Amino acid sequence: MTYEQVKTLKPTEFKRLCGVYPDTFKDMVTVLKAEKVWQKKTGRPSKLSTEDQLLITLEYWREYRTYFHLGNSWGVNESGSSGIVMQIINLK
To answer: What are phi and psi of 56, to 5 degrees?
Structure first.
């Protein structure tokens, strides 16, 4: 489920899905976008939005799914899902 699909959920359902309330999620996205502005742009841009990348990471932490399964669910390959999770985790 993409962010566009889950943003209409009730706050309690949203928290059950990804582990944080919608307001907290929006704050996390704001911080991520601010950090990404300062990062060096290399390689091809992601086809997933920042919100979707955060959802993948939260899904990985919450459900302990493999990168293979995450990739299949989100339409990216295994190394792509791994890269997205590692990029979100390692933002400095």
So the answer is: -60, -45
Distance CA 1, CA 64 (A): 17
**Separate counts of helices (H) and strands (E) for the chain:** 6, 0
pTM: 0.87
| Closest among 73, 74, 61 to 19, alpha carbons compared | 61
Which has the closest alpha carbon to 81: 37, 39, 46, 42? 46
In this predicted structure, what is the pLDDT of residue 9? 94
Q: How many CB atoms lie within 10 A of CB 34?
A: 10
- Asked if residues 56 and 81 have their Cβ atoms less than 8 Å apart, the reply is yes
Which pLDDT score is estimated for 78?
94
Query: Rounded to an integer, what distance in angstroms lies between the CA atom of residue 38 and that of residue 61?
Result: 25
